[in-house]
Amino acid sequence: MMQTFKIFRYNPDEDKNPYYKTYQVDVQEGMTVLDVLNEIKWKLDGSLTFRRSCRHGICGSCAMTINGLNRLACETQVKALGGGTVEVEPLRHYPVIKDLAVDMEDFYKKYEAVKPYFIAGTSPTDKERYQSIEDRKKIDGSYECILCGACTSSCPSYWANPNFLGPAALLAAYRFVFDSRDEGMGERLPILNSRHGLWRCHTIFNCTICPKSLNPTWAIGELKKKVISEKY
Questions:
Q1: How many C-beta atoms lie closer than 10 Å to residue 55's C-beta?
Q2: HSE (CB half, 13 Å, CA atoms) of 183?
Q3: Are 60 and 102 in contact (CB under 8 A)?
Q4: Is pLDDT at 232 greater than 90 in this prediction?
Q5: 132 close to 180: Cβ distance less than 8 angstroms
């Protein structure tokens, strides 16, 4: 079935303004949006730029805005989008490098700022650092983040304040703050409790658009309670 795809195009080195270009693609049963982009790239227009890698919803490279929602192109079945024109755009509120590829440098800086790694106050021994099954379950729904950037792109607080850490970074903070083996709360507290930290989240729930069905809004709420309990 021939279907129309309206693709965002912009090359800052050549174009004065962004524009949309339409392509007709013969969509077969089971094709994803990433399959369509590959068809365009390989057969219709080699100048189209986008990111892709694993094709299995693991790497997060192909996150983009499809029919107004942030999704992974490799997991989005064209058939599930219904008939009519499919509009494909880069993730919003990130600088566009070219076409559907955006600059994620600031996103990763925010992620790095929350110290997304295990911090131990004691020296390692010849034994593993055990934790109970109950403690292990507390970090479910946080370590599965693939850093695709879809949640931060959809966050109105981030739109209004680019210095806000954003939901992805705060979800990473939750993963370590609530790990019973981690002892880095003292280092993370000033970062989380800062002017541009977790209090900039206004619980709008846009970040629950997560392609992996994670809930950064809930995690940020738990962090707020944790920070208050640590200070008072």
A1: 17
A2: 6
A3: no
A4: no
A5: yes
Q: In the beta sheet, which residues pair with residue 86?
A: 5
Residue 203's Cβ-count burial label (10 Å; 0-12, 13-18, 19+) is exposed
147-181 pLDDT, tens digit each: 999 999 999 999 999 999 999 999 999 999 999 99
99 and 73 Cβ atoms separated by less than 8 Å: no
Q: Distances from the Cα of 137 to the Cαs of 73, 140, 142, 213, 214, in angstroms?
A: 30, 5, 10, 17, 14
159 CB-side CA count, 13 A: 13
pTM of the model: 0.94
75 three-state secondary structure: coil
Task: Please provide the size of the chain in residues.
Answer: 232
Per-residue pLDDT band for 127 (boundaries 50, 70, 90) equals confident
pLDDT on residue 134: 97
Look up tokens 């792109």; give the residue.
Answer: 153
CA angle 48, 53, 54 (to 5 degrees): 145
**What is d(CA 6, CA 115) in angstroms, rounded to the nearest whole number?**
40
In this predicted structure, what is the pLDDT of residue 104? 97
Does residue 138 register a pLDDT over 80? yes
Contact 144/212 with Cβ under 8 angstroms?
yes
Query: What CA–CA distance (Å, rounded) separates 21 from 108?
Result: 30
